[in-house]
């Protein structure tokens, strides 16, 4: 370790201790206790990831008065947005992720509605950059990725109407419209895409903190896989009732999902490989394409004004065509032409 790195670590150690002392001197004892727990879980030492007891201390704020959960989330967010250290930012995000995964509902709800009503990019780390050294620069890309992943976790929960970690929640689709179903699938696919866009510096997983972060994300990905399976199976049952535009949207979502597969295998080192899941995605995608092609083929039908002595080529018609018109694909798009029919009179 270089002298500069050693001095930086020593300075950070003193800084962390000073922050804890300052927080503990607050006259608001309950608030100061929460802030001390947050500071101890989010130190500058990269080699020391938050312990289980430190995370448990932070989560305990959700079991206090109604003000403590809000104070806890505000303390973590203040720490996250004020720091220029990639290590501190990652530990803050890791702590927030544990709140989403294991925290009481009071903490989850306060996080979901931060700062006042939640929303996209609530963590606001798209431009985060720690250029202290090469490793800090690499960690900065993981900070930006991790923040986006957490934002998508919260977005998915809002779209689904329940937290991903919720157990025993009935996934009933009887009252869900096809538009709502596709909206939920889109949100789930967006999450998978964001996860698959992990930085290329995968060697950083040798660091305990990074390993634990990727493991938590892997757990969320497993839950999202199950949700996607349920929603895609439901869409398969509705394929015959979906319009062409809806089928096209569904197929596009499933194609986007398949494009993430190889990157996910590399990120999770074959964990959550789940061949049956990908078989389902491929099967429903093919079924959607076939149904879409059949429906589009029905539109290329001559509409004939009904006469008892004429034979209709098919029972399917396009309501936007006049009798005797045909829809065909030209060099500049779809065109309508008049079809001249000669009918031979019998007898």
UniProtKB/TrEMBL annotation:
Superkingdom of the source species: Eukaryota
One Gene Ontology BP term is: clathrin coat assembly
- Protein name in UniProt: ENTH domain-containing protein
Its primary localisation, in coarse terms, equals cytoplasm
Q: Which Gene3D superfamilies match?
A: 1.25.40.90
Q: Where in the cell is it found?
A: Cytoplasmic vesicle, Clathrin-coated vesicle; Golgi apparatus; Membrane, Clathrin-coated pit
- ENTH domain residues are 26-164
Could you tell me the keywords of this UniProt record?
Answer: Coated pit, Cytoplasmic vesicle, Endocytosis, Golgi apparatus, Membrane
List the source organism. Answer: Phaseolus vulgaris
GO MF annotations, alphabetized:
1-phosphatidylinositol binding; clathrin heavy chain binding; phosphatidylinositol-4,5-bisphosphate binding; SNARE binding
| A GO term from the CC aspect | Golgi apparatus
